[in-house]
Amino acid sequence: MFWIAGSELTMTGGKGRFPLTLFRTVALTLAAVVLSGFGGSGPEIPKPDDAVAPPPPIPSIEESVVHLHVSLGLNDLASAADEAFPHEGAKEEVWQDGGTLAGHGPYQYFYRFVRGPLHVRIVGDRLAIEYPEFRYRLAIKLARPDGEVLVGTCGYDDDPPKRLRLTATSRVRWSEAWTLQSETSFTPPSFLDPCRLTNRDIDGTLIVQSLLDAKLRPLASAIDAMMRESTASKARAGAVWRKLQDATALTPNLWLTLNPIGAQVGPVSAKGEQLIQASIHLLLRPTVSLGTQPAPDPRPLPSLELTPHAGNGFHLALPILAEYPAINRLLAQRLVGSEIPSSVGDPLKIVSARLYGSGANLILELGMSGGINGILYATGTPVLDTKTNMLRFEHFNFTVETKNALLKAANWVVHDDLLARLEPETRIDLSEQVGRLRGRLARALTRQVAAETWLGRGAGACGGITPALCPVTRPPHTI
Q: pLDDT tens across 188-226, in order?
């Protein structure tokens, strides 16, 4: 059995077939780098009929990340604010008691507000909220101690409505309840026109500000509630989390288990000025197993961890099965009957060839006649060329015993020529096996994992190559 994981490949012995394990990167490509291996003076190797070395451990794979996208259009927030703060409000039918005005005694009032559209945009992790076109008028009635009643107004009759501007900021962050949480607060109104009452003796803006404060507090609460309700992610993430623990069939006896192990969130950001976006990053430790479907290992949904940088990519060791008999038939066709000239003695003729494995090495057994009559052994580390899907030897060399046999037979001079002749013929094309597994993995990574949530290999709206959990009602395009 072979495992190729990112830059490494190891092997277990066997005389029937061997699986190669591929490391899947973000682009479903295969990565391979040289693993330090046997180089001429290594350990003794078993003969084909001896007990082979035990299998090596599954290679270490970095954690995978799948993204659960959370977004909120600011139009939704604007709608919530519209409902909480009507476009027009007035109390002009009867005088309203207003308490005591400092220096003047008790007063009554009536008013009318007319606001324009709400403007909301996001800058960094903060909402900027503004009512730039806000008009009002105000009247007050004062009862003096001598019985005189004074009435003062601004914005009535020939006096045009007065203007003010309302602004608020709201910091957006993640909460422990897996929602985006905002903290909205309005700044004091900015009065663009003066409102002087009773012969310019009383500043009406102070009364207007107190009236607005009573309306702005519930407005801020409505915006924050809308943010929480629209980005509630814990229930959705919990359903996805449970589904990702179930094994998925790649073949009838090959199972992919994604094994979610943690959850992280990154900073909240803006897409343009009208969309809040963020992602929950589910950390996975995918495994593949042979045989019957593995039972799930239930894990509870963890707490969110804040992280400034989210990982990326999907990393997996996948076995590719290649039959030794088929490989050895191919080697026999390529090698058996070949002759290697020798400057000393008779030429060397290859009469048999077969490949087998032990531990982390592939072993080539060659039957020879002519200049040498007997068995030669060469060994090396198997490496998969990711561009050609070709399995080849790395550090290909004869064993110590074989080198000694060549030396005793006065044929050491053919050592390098023989290796150069053999190595290209030992390369095995695994394109078919790799292609099949790529297709099966792509299908396994494009499936429904919760109501209206699909696991798709896409960025943004699931159209790219990064695994993401997409809130769509149909599966995205698959390769």
A: 999 999 998 876 678 999 899 999 998 888 888 888 888
- Exposed/middle/buried for residue 83 (C-beta within 10 Å: 0-12, 13-18, 19+): exposed
Q: Which long-range contacts (CB under 8 A, 24 or more apart) does 223-226 make?
A: 223/77, 223/80, 223/81, 223/84, 223/127, 223/129, 223/168, 223/170, 223/182, 223/184, 224/170, 224/181, 224/182, 224/183, 224/184, 225/80, 226/76, 226/77, 226/80
Average pLDDT over residues 379-407: 80
Structural element, H or E, at residue 333: helix 324-335
* Amino acid, res. 85: F
Q: Please choose, from the candidates 343, 353, 346, 350, the residue with its C-alpha nearest in 3D space to the C-alpha of residue 368.
A: 350
DSSP-derived secondary structure letter, 56: P
The first and second tokens of residue 36, run together, are 């330090």
DSSP symbols for 314-332: ---EEEEEEEHHHHHHHHH
Quick check: helix, strand or coil at residue 84?
A: helix
What the block records as the tokens of 381 is: 């580390």
Tens-place pLDDT, residues 450-472: 776 777 754 433 433 344 444 43
For the chain, the straight-line distance linking the first and the last C-alpha, in angstroms and rounded, comes to 28
φ and ψ at residue 254, rounded to 5 degrees = -130, 120
Q: Are 374 and 32 in contact (CB under 8 A)?
A: no
Helical pair 205-230 and 74-84, crossing angle rounded to 10 deg: 130
465 to each of 57, 291, 312, 374, how far by Cα in Å? 29, 29, 10, 53
Say which DSSP state 412 is in: G
Q: What are phi and psi of 130, to 5 degrees?
A: -150, 140
Q: Which of 72, 453, 447 is nearest to 226 (CA)?
A: 72
Q: How far apart are CA 133 and CA 136, in angstroms?
A: 10
Q: Where are the beta strands (DSSP E) in 324-476?
A: 339-340, 348-358, 361-370, 374-385, 390-398, 428-429, 447-450, 453-457, 467-470
Give the span between the Cα atoms of 352 and 110, in whole angstroms.
Answer: 107
d(CA 131, CA 138): 19
Give the pair of three-digit tokens for residue 244: 């990702």
The Cα–Cα gap between 385 and 469 comes to 32
**How many other CB atoms are found less than 10 A from the CB of residue 288?**
20
Rounded distance, CA 180 to CA 178, Å? 7
Rounded to two decimals, the pTM is 0.63
